[in-house]
Every structure is written in C-alpha cells, then in structure tokens.
C-alpha cells in the first residue's frame, strides 16, 4: 500500500510539471533521430540526449553522456540512493524509424512536434521519446515533492534500438555498470489497455524458404497444368510449388493457435508464422520460374527457444515435402534463424510485477492489468542480463512506426505518475 499523502503529493507534483514535460517531448520529437544506417545524418540520437541532459540535471540527477560510436552518444541519469533501498533501471531509446513520405503525414509533419487535440504529433512521440521523457519527469516530480528514493535509480536514454544495435545502446549501458535489481522498459504498452504492464514478450526469428523449380520456355505452361501433360519432364514452376509450402505453413500457424500458449498472453493465436516477402520468377527471361523464396517473421512463445522453433518448422516442411513428388526430390531449403531477437518473461509473482501492480492501482484506482506484449524490445536483452524486467509506457503500439504517429498528453502524465509510484513502492523513500 502506498501512503495516501505521498500519493496525493506525487501525483500533484507530476500535474504541476505538465507544461515542462510536454515541452521536453516536443523538443525531442523536433530532432530527427532516425537510426543512423537508414538516415542521412548520424548525430540525431546524440542531439536528443543533449536536450534531455540539462532536464535531468535540473532536478538533481547526475548524468553520464558518452559516445559509443562517432556521433552516437548514450545518456544515463543517475540517482544515488542513500538508504539501501532496491535499485531500479528505467530504459528507453531515442532513435526512431524513418518517417516515410512526408505527404503521408496528413495531420502534422513528422518532425513538427505539433499539439492537436491533446496529442503530440511526430515520429518518435510514441516510440518512444514520450516514454523517456515520462521517466525523467517521474524523478523530477518525486524530488520536487520532497521525496528522496532510498535505492539507486538509473534512467538509460540509449541509441540504436530500432535496428537492434544493443551493443551500442542498451547493451553498452548495462556494460558500463548501469544495472539494477529490476528494470522497466518504457516502450508504449497499449493495447489492450492504456499503460498495461507487460510481463512477457514473444521471441522473433526471421526465416527464408527457398523452393526450386525447373525452367522451361513460358509457352510450356499447358504441359505443366493439363491432365496428361508431360509435367515435370518439361518444367516445374517454383511459384506453384512455393504456394504448396505456404499452405503447409499456414496449417502449422493454425495449429500453433491451439498448441502454443503462455499465461501472459490471454488472446489465442498470438504466436504466428508471418509471411512478409515472396519473391520469384523473372520477367526478362520469359521462362517458367526456376526459383521462389519466401521470407517469414516468426513470433514464438517466451518459453520456447529460437533453435527449438527452427527445428520444429524444418521438420514440418520436410514432412510436408514427402507428400509432393517434386518437393520430395527437390526439398525446400530452409534457412533459419537468419536473425533472431530474444523473448522476455518475468513471472507475475516477481516482486517488480507486484510493485508495478500496486503502483498502477494507486494511480488508476482500479486493479492493475498485467499482459504479454506483442513485440520485442530491449527488454529481451535486459532480461538476458539477469534483471527482472517489465515493459510499460505511454502511447499505443498501433501508432508507432505509422504515419501521423502521436502520443496522448494524458498518457505522458499518467506514465510519469506510474513510474513515480513504482519508484516509491520499489526503492522506498
Ligand atoms: Zn521502441
């Protein structure tokens, strides 16, 4: 239970800082900080961290800003608790994905940081400059209200999340010693509800399936499909064959909806085999397509491993290939995992989940909502480093990476309140 007077004072302190919080988010959004390998300019991440640094310092946090690569600096705000409380890490990234064609931003420009109807618009407002700013203002409000956390609090504002450069961002910050007894990744955690507490996320694997055909002149198509035609003796369309494998994987996905579960994921069918690219044939050679490949993104449950899931899919395709004379002789090549991201899982019985639930009840006056998140984030890497981790933050994932990305100002305030209450409950004051 959080003391009623502390609660009132802290929530009021956050409300009193509303304008400053909004200003910080707008300032951050107005700096294009696209992940460098897709951007023209590489210094955006650093410039955002230079905007946050004085705000951290203005409320009494120590700061550590260091360059990991030329033009790319991480920032950590540090509160050294003097009372032997539990320590807490709040983590967020300042890089963003490219905005796409500016004309698709029909409400406000991608770097405008414009406020319309209580929402701040721009690339990164939800994912996730808003979350980083809310974490800073949670500390600012606590200190303004006169409360000093007993445990250490670290706010990591890192580079390189969107392209999984953990070595440069979160991984580098952990290695530099900014570790704690528990961590909150401040990524947007709605849906299903505003600021739901995510205690798990799926893992991700990228897979390629290559199916071979047999090239022949395009005029031979009838030989392939006509009853009594000479079929494979003449040619085989890799596109026709790839769709057989596609159907087989669709079946497996359907099966996963029944067989793959995790207690944090209430809705069924969350773990999927998602075909993202199909490529085959060549208009210039005017031949029956000799090769076709499919790329899949696979979301698997936190209790499974990338290797286990890869074996399962390979076995499924191999079994299916036995049912087709061509595929039996020319088995599809499955390349997996080409790329993978770790899942994370923190038992809802863990003290950090309980502390977050207590804090959430104090802010929203209703039972806390604990849930599995649909996406991977740096939470996977922090959990791998042995730190119990949750994901909770302002904004809606549906808005992230899309056009007209925006974050609700009320969400920012509520996130700052929630983080402040978690610090009270977890670190002590
Ligand atoms: Zn993000």
State the main characteristics.
4-stranded antiparallel β-sheet, elongated, 429 residues, 12 helices, binds zinc ion, 6-stranded mixed β-sheet
Reported for the largest beta sheet, the result is:
6 strands, mixed
* Chemical compounds bound to the protein: zinc ion
Average pLDDT score: 94
Uncertain parts: none
The ordered H/E elements are HHHEEEEEHEHEEEHHEEHHEEHEHEEH
Outline: elongated
Report the span from N to C terminus: 13 Å
Helix content estimate: 25-40%
How many strands in all? 16
Indicate the structural class: alpha/beta
Report strand %: 15-25%
**What is the number of helices?**
12
Strand order of the largest sheet: 1-2-6-3-7-15
